[in-house]
Amino acid sequence: MAIEILPARLANQIAAGEVVERPASVVKELVENSIDAGATRIDVDIEKGGSKLIRVRDNGCGISKADLQLALSRHATSKIHSLDDLEAIMSLGFRGEALASVSSVSRLTITSRPAEQQEAWSAFAEGREMAVNVKPAAHPVGCTVEVVDLFFNTPARRKFLRTDKTEFGHIDELLRRIALSRFDITINLRHNGTQVRQYRRVPENGDPLRRVKAICGQKFVEHALRIDLHHHDMALTGWICTPEGARQQNDMQHCFVNQRMMKDKLINHAIRQGYEQSLAHDQYAAFVLYIDVDPHQVDVNVHPAKHEVRFHQARLVHDFIYQAIYDGLQQAALSAENGVDPDTGEIREAVTYQPRASATAKPNPYQQAVDAFPDYPGKREGGGSSLTTSSRDTASYKHDASDSSHRGRSSHGSEWAGRPAAPSSPPSKQATQAYQALMTPQSDAGTDLGGAMQRSATTLSHFESIPATLDTVSTTECTGQSGLGKVLAVVEQHYVLMSWGEGLWLVDHHRLECWRHQGALQPALGEGLVTQPLLIPQRLSASEEECQRVIQYQALLGQFGIHIRPKGQQLMVMSVCQPLRQHNLQAFIPALLDFLGGLDPDQSHTDHSASMCSWLAKQLTVASDPVSLAQAVQTVSDIEQYWQGDALEKGRQRYFKRLDLTSVIEALQHD
C-alpha cells in the first residue's frame, strides 16, 4: 500500500485514543484549560455520566475571535512558544492536542469572550478536514466548552463506557482532586440538572482544612499532621495522616507537583518508605501533599496523560520526601508517647499508652526521669510507671531540611500500633504538681554563682528561653552532670550558651556542626563507613583524567562509603555513606574530584584518610539559617554520642569559651 497523509479527523481520532479515555478525561482537559486561563469559578454540568453532555464554563480570560479558529487545530497553543518554554512548564496544558482530539470524537462547541472584546463568538469543527466555523454568540467574559454525544462516531469506544453512575463517579473523583490542588477556585458540579458538589474558594487568609475536610472527611482532619519542609528550591507542604488514620485501601492519596495532579512511582515509593515502620502490611497511608520544585528541574512531558514526571535530581527529591514523612511521623509519635504538647509544653488530655516491650530497646530517658522521682503519682510498685498521651486534632511539623540530615532514626516509630484509643481521666492536681517539679531544672546546691545567674537571667534579652518540655530533659538531670553540659539558650541566632561545672560557656554552633560531622565520619578511619545504595544512580560527565583519579583512589572512597564507577566519559555514583544522603551530589562529586587531585601521592593512606575526613566534615557543614534551641540540643547530643573521654574534653577546650560573669554579677549587686 502507498504511504498517504491521514485526514485531519482520522489523525485527531487516533490522538484521542490517548487523550480521551473516558468522559472524565474530557473534563480533566477542559477544567485544566480553565485553570490556565486564570478562572476563579468553574461550573461543570454533566448529563448521563458525560456520554450525553459535558459542559465546562469559566470566568477566565477568554479566547479572542482570531484565536478561536486555531483553538480547535492540532498542536495549536498559547502556553508555549519555544523549547525554553517546554523545559520550564508551569501551565497544566501545553501540547495543544486536547480540543482537537475531543472535537474529533464528539460534537464540540466552544464559546468565548475576552474582556477587551464587546461580543462573544462560537466555534465548532465539522467535516472530513475538521474545518472550523465561527459565528456570533451571547456570552459573558470567559469561556464555555460543550461536548455533546461523546464517541458518537466511534462506536467501538462508546461500547466500552461503563454505566452512567460509574462514569460520573470518575468525574466526581477527578474534581475532588482538582479542588484539592487549587483552594483559590470555586468549583461547582451538576449531574442531570442536580447540584452534586460545591467547593467554595478559600479566602487568602482562610483555613484550607475546611475544603480538605469536605473532600477527605472528618477522620482525616482529626489525624492529620501538617508538613511544611523547605530545602533550597524544593518545598513539601500538606498533610499526612498518623497511623491511627490509616485506611484499608489507597483511596485517599493525593499528591501534586507544581499544582499538577500526580501518580508518580518515585514519589509513591518515597512515601511508602516513610510510612514503612508505622503501618501494618494491610494498611494504607492517607495524605494530601504538595511538592513545589524549580520547573527547570522537572520534565512533565513524559506521560501521555501527564500523570508522571521525571525529576532531574530524582534521588534528591526521593530522599527529601522520605525524610519529611519519616521525621514527621517520628516526631508526632514521640510527642504523643510523652503526653506533652511540643508547642506549649502542657500536659494534654490523656489516654493510656503501654509501650511494647523490646529486649533490644534503649532505655527511655523520660521513663528514667519518672522512675527517679519517688513521689510521682500513678507510679506502679514494680518501679515502672504509666505514661499518658493523646493526639491533637491537627498536629504541626515544621523544620528546615538542613536539620534532617543529621537526625537519626528514632526507636519510637514502631510503637504506633500498640497505642489503644480508650480515654482515661485527666491528670489530678497532685500529678500536675509532681510533673512540674520533675520538669523544673534544679540548681546546683551550695553554688552562689548558680544562684546569682538565676537572679540575673532576665537581663539576657537576646537569649531564646528553654521551653519546659520533655524535649529538654536528659538523663544527666537524674544521674549527675556529664558530657558537654546542658544547653541553656541560643545567643544572637548562631551561638550556643551552655552550663558545665560551675561556669557558663559559649560556642559557635557552626563549629559544633563541623565537630559533629567529624564524629560521624570517624568510623571511616577504622572499619569504614556503611554504604547506602542510591535508588537511582547519579551520572556525571568526567574527563579521562578524573576517571583515572577515581580508579586510583577507589580504596579511599570505599573507606568512606562512596562507590563511583567510571563508564566511558561518565562517572556513575552507585552509593554513598549516610551523612551524604541529603547532599547535592551533582555539586559534591566535582568538588571531591578536585580534592583528590590535590592529595600528595607521597603521603600514606592513613594521612589521606585523615585529610579526607576533615575535608568531608567541612563540606557537610554549611552556613545555616538562625539556629533553634532544638537544633542546638540535638547537635550537642550527637557529639556526645560520637566522642567520649579525652576526645570530648579536647574538643571542649578547643571550641568552648568560658564566660567571666563575676564583674557582671558584682555590677548587678551594686545597682
TrEMBL record:
Compositional bias annotation for Basic and acidic residues: 395-406
Keywords, in A-Z order: DNA damage, DNA repair, Endonuclease, Hydrolase, Nuclease
Entry-linked Pfam families: DNA_mis_repair, HATPase_c_3, MutL_C
Single GO cellular component term: mismatch repair complex
One GO MF term: ATP-dependent DNA damage sensor activity
An annotated GO BP: mismatch repair
Record-annotated DNA mismatch repair protein S5 domain positions: 212-330
InterPro entries per UniProt: DNA_mismatch_repair_CS, DNA_mismatch_repair_MutL, DNA_mismatch_S5_2-like, HATPase_C_sf, MutL/Mlh/PMS, MutL/Mlh/Pms-like, MutL_C, MutL_C_dimsub
Region listing for Disordered, in residue ranges: 354-434
Keyword Transport in annotation: no
MutL C-terminal dimerisation domain mapped to chain residues: 487-627
Domain of life: Bacteria
Function, as annotated: This protein is involved in the repair of mismatches in DNA. It is required for dam-dependent methyl-directed DNA mismatch repair. May act as a 'molecular matchmaker', a protein that promotes the formation of a stable complex between two or more DNA-binding proteins in an ATP-dependent manner without itself being part of a final effector complex.
Family: Belongs to the DNA mismatch repair MutL/HexB family.
The protein's name: DNA mismatch repair protein MutL
Source organism of this protein record: Salinivibrio kushneri
